[in-house]
Amino acid sequence: MDATVRTATPTDVLHRVTDGVRRLTGQLTGRRRARAEIPAVDEFPGGVRMYSPVTGAGSPLSPPMRVTPDGDGVVGRCTLGIAHEGPPGYGHGGMSAMLLDELMGWACAAAGSPGMTVSLQVRYHRPVPLETPLRVFARVTGTEGRKISVDGSISTEEDPSVAVVTAEGVFVSPDPDRTRALFPDLQGTPGGRQAHGSR
Ligand SMILES: CCCCCCCCCCCCCC(=O)SCCNC(=O)CCNC(=O)[C@H](O)C(C)(C)COP(=O)(O)OP(=O)(O)OC[C@H]1O[C@@H](n2cnc3c(N)ncnc32)[C@H](O)[C@@H]1OP(=O)(O)O
Predict the structure, then answer these.
(1) In testing the pocket of ligand 1, which one of 54, 172, 178, 182 has its CB within 8 Å of the most ligand atoms?
(2) Is the CB–ligand 1 distance for residue 120 below 6 Å?
(3) Taking every annotated instance into account, which residue ranges of this chain make up the domain Thioesterase (predicted)?
(4) 81 Cα: distance to centroid of ligand 1 (angstroms)
(5) What is the largest CA-CA distance in the chain?
(6) What are the helix (H) ranges across the chain?
(7) d(CA 81, CA 59)
(8) Residue 60 C-alpha to ligand 1 middle, in angstroms?
(9) How far does residue 148's CA lie from ligand 1's centre (Å)?
(10) Under CATH, which architecture does the 2-182 domain have?
(11) Strand, coil or helix: what is 182?
(12) Backbone Cα Rg of the chain
């Protein structure tokens, strides 16, 4: 990703490399994961998401963000590159929202109530610097039935006390019927812990 958005190589080289990439991806044969299939290596919800665009070590799109418990919430650490650029030299606002949305979802799962985002309000206080280690934080601030309120923030590792982006979100834990309908590949819903291991 970084190489493709940085290069200033001439067009003929780009064409040659494109052919090479097509040859390589052509070798990714065999069974392909179906749309709603949960990868066998995943622990869903609240654990490994190998191909997540935010945390997935197996995704070329992800920074990736590494998530660990932290006090009453969860912390995510990552560095955005120029593939994630919005204003020149700074992160895209959608990337910030995506990092926060994902980590706020992890905070729900860590608090024992995995949920999906129904509302996310993001405030951009300062631009997010690229190629700079970031610290994302999220914690559950309250629950009301299936509704979970969550706060989140992004700061730099160098200056963790200054939040450059903050967010407030509402997440909802789908009821068991809705969970089964949305995620047919989950075993033992509600709250099914792991993808089918037989694949
Ligand atoms: C095992 C469980 C699995 C969980 C999955 C974890 C995935 C983690 C992946 C994380 C990935 C990262 C994160 C992502 O990317 S998540 C992806 C982005 N989000 C979505 O796609 C969610 C789309 N929404 C839905 O599918 C439904 O709304 C769901 C299924 C979530 C709830 O539909 P359901 O029919 O079940 O619920 P309900 O309509 O009875 O509402 C329930 C309550 O919520 C209140 N309400 C509703 N909307 C709002 C609102 N905007 N502000 C404030 N409150 C709101 C509503 O008034 C009611 O309250 P009350 O009247 O009872 O007081």
Answers:
(1) 172
(2) no
(3) 89-161
(4) 31
(5) 59
(6) 2-6, 11-25, 93-110, 176-182
(7) 14
(8) 28
(9) 9
(10) Roll (3.10)
(11) helix
(12) 19
For residue 170, the CA-to-ligand 1 centroid distance in Å is 8
* Structure ipTM over 0.90, yes or no: yes
116/108 Cα distance (integer angstroms): 9
Domain coordinates in residue numbering, the chain: 2-182
Mean pLDDT, all residues of the chain: 93
**pLDDT of 160-196, one tens digit each?**
999 999 999 999 999 999 999 999 998 754 444 444 4
CA atoms within 13 A on the CB side of 13: 5
Protein residue whose Cα sits closest to atom 35 of ligand 1 = 174
Q: What is the pLDDT of residue 46?
A: 86
Pocket of ligand 1 contains residue 175 by CB under 6 Å: yes
- Beta partners for residue 100, in sequence order: none
